[in-house]
Amino acid sequence: MKYSIIASALLVCFISMDANASDNFTVNGYYKNFFAVYDYSDALESIWLGDEPVGIVTNRIRIDSKWKITKSTILNASYNFAPRIQDNNFSSMQLGAYDLQQRSYRFDDFESRLYPGKDKSPASFLIYHNLDRLNISISTEAADIYIGRQAIAWGSGKMINPTDVIAPYSFDELNSEERIGVDAIRLRIPVGPMEEFDIGYLIGEDFKFNNSAFYLRGKFYAAQIDFSFLALGFKENVLLGLDLTRSIGGAGFWLETAYVFPDGLKVEDKTNEDNYFRATVGLDYSLTDRMYGFIEYHYNQPGENKADDYGLIPIGTAYFEGSVYLRGQHYLMPGASYQITPLIIASNNFIWNLNDLSILIAPAMEYNIAENIYLAAGGFIGVGKAMTWPSYSNPFTQQSGSEFGGYADSFFTSFRFYF
After folding, report:
1. What gap in Å lies between CA 90 and CA 324, rounded to an integer?
2. What is the residue extent of each domain of the chain?
3. Kind and range of the H or E element at 39?
4. 24-418: which CATH architecture?
5. Mean per-residue pLDDT for 319-339?
6. What is the model's pTM?
7. Which of 237, 302, 318, 348 has the lowest tally of Cβ within 10 angstroms?
8. Whole-angstrom Cα distance, residue 228 to residue 138?
9. Listed residue (256, 358, 348) closest to 293, CA to CA
10. How far is CA 191 from CA 138, 187, 221, in A?
């Protein structure tokens, strides 16, 4: 693989650095442990996984390195190593949302699973790895240039970001601290104290245009409002986005919208899908010194108004290429956090599907037990009518019920240590 050669060359460079260069070379990272239990019995009526809960233990070690080659040139690299122990029957569905990480824009990569090999069936012990960053940044008076694997993300929404279609996480991802790295060439040009143009090309698999993306994003400030405009071409589709934030009477306000033209860059073989619109609007406010709350509304035009129309696997550009995973059209998402002590914070977020009235409840609590050491626990609990199938012999028949009634209830603990 191309990246194995590059990574080996970088390793040799790092090892051969002399003592004088060590001041310009830094290494940090973390170790994380997640233990999660999933109960699919109510959600799937025991069709696939039976009545017993299934569990998974994931360990993740991340090493971030930075080499300041010159005053204006920095080389960044990050590598993840993730052993996993799981129930033999554990489903790749996890919490019910799609694995959005698999849609990352990378022209080439390692096999993500180290053990067992790709030709062998996974069992209870697996090892994954990920070269998540490998980029060089160059700062000049006119612009900042980034070349290589890096994180690219946008959006002001708390729970759902309509413009973030590059490599987003679903709302139920347990480890979302860093965005998945994508292969890109990026140019950020400042045009004012709080204003810039951001231009980039994201390189897809095998350098093919229909696997790649490009964008122009402008960020401006006027009349106490932060504006962002986005024009994005991704996998031969076109997205036009608007994002604005401002303060209203002590509360924070945000509006993020995206209008997508499926196959907007195709000349032939167009699917003639309808254009679609997504929007998120919200407010947040610090109610007391310890209490913070927000509320957000999300409109998802590609979704359905009736649970009977969801289908087991949604189809269309929005779901296959646009990183949409919600089934309905209208969602209300309130959330709050409370600082019980300076070291203990409790939170609870809700996602309410206004079409089928199902709710996903996400309580959590975190304890900062020592410097750079955290313990946390929480869960995702779906409330609503469970999925059903007209024919159990064919699980791909049309489902009914509700969206979050079809999610597995899950509970987790986590341990995080940063170094």
Report:
1. 24
2. 24-418
3. strand 25-39
4. Beta Barrel (2.40)
5. 95
6. 0.88
7. 348
8. 24
9. 348
10. 18, 13, 11
